[in-house]
Batch of 2 targets.
Target 1
Amino acid sequence: MVASTFFLVSLFALALGNPLSRRTMQLHESRDEVPEGFVQQGAAPSDTMLKMRIALTQNNIGGLQEALMDVSTPSSALYGQHLSKEEVEAFVTPSAETVQAVNAWLSENSISATTISPAGDWLAFEIPVSKANELLDADFTVFQHTETGDQSIRTLSYSVPSDLTSHIELVHPTITFPNPFAHLPVVVSPGPAKGAVKPSNLSSDAVPASCATTITPTCVQDLYGIPTTKATESSNQLGVSGFIEQFANQQDLKTFLTNLRPDLPSTTVFTLQTLDGGSNPQTNSEAGIEADLDTQYTVGIATGVPVVFISVGERFQDGALEGFLDIINFLLGESNPPHVLTTSYGQNENTISRALANQLCNAYAQLGARGTSILFSSGDGGVAGSQTTRCTTFLSTFPSGCPFMTSVGATTGVPETSASFSSGGFSNFFGTASYQTSAVSGYLATLGNTNSGKFNRSGRAFPDVAAIGDNVEIVFQQESGLVAGTSCSSPIFASIISLINDKLVAAGKSPLGFLNPFLYSTAASTFTDITTGNNPGCNTNGFPATAGWDPVTGLGTPNFAALAAAAGV
């Protein structure tokens, strides 16, 4: 009898020592299958350390989204009255109850988390695989991407305590897989292997006729009527995102300006910000195609606008999505973030959990409400998404499917036609945005039954706009060459918005901020409609470009004077 009593007491003590045994776990996220291209390699080593993040429930995200639309819609009485840092944080700061409950759970398991966002809605901590499996009732496994050989540790499902499901949006990295193709610059050279630069014979005194085969800053200015007069407002900053150790080289920029913008001082430079251990070494061999392209076609088009290159390091588990989040939180922590942010990276939406996509999209809503225009290249795989062709249904890209940013597609040639690589389509995560309902319904009516069953007819449609993205000349490691991709188009369109913002700020007005409600309403008639071409993929011809908005080139390409007039300057 004494022995039995001792056994029961021991079990009770063991239960007290294992907090997980006292909590009922509930499945929080799962995916039905391993993403195409990945294969399981076996259980992850138990002692491998995982850099984990938890997104806490934000207190009023619906209120933030409503406020964003109010300050971004030209017909609204609040148009242009962007929110302050404190006003945005008031919408997203988790409740005290949420913070206390989640931290108590972590503390029970001897985990001390660090807050990694200005509003306190993201926590971070490191634990070994063995503890992650126990904490989340998960099965962390090594997955290898067969084409690249890249390995990642992920789980196909995880759980959280049932009493915390209303406090936790997601835990990462869990069911979101990295996109190996996002680890390459979204630059597709028309001739040599991907990422290479095609030699160019263009000289600095090229005449506009050469624009049919080679795009330079002069060509872009001629195509869209962009002025060469210097911007005047130092507060009107243009941010360029840098990821995956793509470094922007100042000497390459100097040579680019000397050859192709001789009217600008060749000493014109961009400034640098870093986070997550980011850097920007200036050794010639470390220059990156993507970073050079993005800085050259912002400095080189947005004449006189202060350009900042924001280099994001890789102090996270793996994949670019943590960097996507960190750069937004970094800028949200600033009192005066850039008025425009352009990013030339992305990945297929189907590799991401819906919860993480929502959180990133809401982060864009926060920065948009502050008055920043967020632009992303739409991708370079046509309807196959982000540089892949193995698909039976169309693949949308992220974050282009997010309704709170502006997606930029690509054109080619003079006169312009759709670039066949220009990704576009319809999100499977986000519904058609209110600002684009009319434009999209018109396109779907014209499309009829073409591609029926291959895409989500009720999804957020992208891209929103387009710009030239083929045969674009850059200087890379002191050699001139041509590149192509929507990653050319995004910095070009961002530069146009920055120049319009300069005029607005000079006139004492607010910058444009989140663009889409303006683009699809007041500004819709200012675009040059692209009605030829398509974006093939998934063994189809993809979507056709037609009159009006289409999922290849969006509303079309910009006319600077008309767009500025629509903005009121």
Target 2
Amino acid sequence: MPKLDNPKILVVNDDANSLFALTSLLAQWAEQEGYEVLSAPSGQDALRQVLMHDFAVILLDVNMPGMDGFETAAAIHARARSADIPIIFITAFLADELDRLKAYQHGAVDFLFTPVIPQILYAKISVFVALAMKNEELKQQARQLSLRTTELIATNKHLTREIAERKTVERQNHAKDEFLAMLGHELRNPLSAISSAASLIGLPGVSLDGVQRAKKIIQRQSQHLGRIVDDLLDLSRAMSGKILLSRAPLELSTLIAQTLETYRATGRSTDYELDQDLMPGWVDGDSTRLEQITSNLIDNALKYTPPGGRIAVRTWTEHDDVVLSVSDTGVGISAELLPHVFDVFVQGSRTLDRAQGGLGIGLSLVRRLAELHGGSIAAESAGAQQGSTFTLRLPRINHQLEAPAATPQLGTHGKPRVLLIEDNEDGREMMTMMLGGYGYDVQSAADGLQGLDAARTHQPDLALVDIGLPGIDGYEVARRLRADAATSGIKLVALTGYGLADDLRRVMEAGFDRHLVKPVDIDQLMEVIDSCARVPVKQ
């Protein structure tokens, strides 16, 4: 503990001889008792000293000209910092009871009468000096205790924060482990089905019907694998901010009505009561990504609602927002899970029926896509078995419907001539056969240089170009085709396994008209070929 400052004693007396006598008498004990002695010749000087120092006791003469002892005592005790300083009045006459009362009312603790008896003075002063030293010691202990308490509180907060962070990391690691185990399960199921179906096709004695069923299984499970890969890539792109939105004014209720019609047409909602109440509202958004949000919310409702349950989809406008809500009568969300339903790698109870599959990352993707649109998503549930409601809010825009454009006419050919530039032999063969089966005249090339020669020789209407070609890549193929007057009018569609925003930018800068990410869905490919055949070539 730091060394304590010596207590101070103040002697106040207007008589110089009396002041000298008292201070000298006190000084002879100062070193022994460990105190300092200060003096003041008037009440005003005493107040100045009190402003500068703390005193263990003040010896105050009663009879002083100008400001007497009582007035000086009152002024000292009127100040909060010096209100508790004990004052011993010194007087030359024996005070009567009224004088004593007046002195005590002004803060006196005792009286000394002149001539002062040294032994009595020493006894009284010693008590107040010891008391002051004890008080100062207690104050220092209190300061040390307060400092230690502050340090302990800070340490406790730090430890609490570390424990919370460690629990969060452990929870995330556990969730990731479960996610990876689930991912392995989701990948092995379709791969096992594909492997079994491929083996079945090669067995002797398999009926034609069995071969057809095996082919359908391979096709269906391949699409399922593609959806899993798409989910993973979309989430990765969304979390890293690399999704590039193709935004345009669109009427949200129309898009949602089309999505719901797809669910009904494909039979995915057959076992449920699917209600809709859609009010119009315009937003500036990417139709593909908004349909993805809607589908994920509806898929989530279907997954966690038992057959026979009700799913309600509503849209309306509210202030500056267009609002979409998807409500269900399903298993609900517990209070513990509710704040985390949009976190990555978080799912509901693993005991739920997961027959429909999926990775459980759809809601994380929904939140990120909503944020990229400048909107928000919220979840509500009254608890287990109480159903849930997800509410999407997007900024509303004012939009005037434009006059319908004239219907574009098809080119002179019935179907466009297609050039496929693909280095993977199996992929090239399969796509050539598939396009041929749809009635397209298809030429193919195995690398970029062969593709350039084929384009000049056959003059196709449209070229499907793989980006990762040997020799010169697809970007260079596009640039050379656009630079040659003989081939500059060919529509160019990029086929690539890369789907990040930067990849799309490079594709469009190279001169392509469209960008498709492998594996390409045949219906999507037909739509792209048809749309490219209907519009003028990009300049």
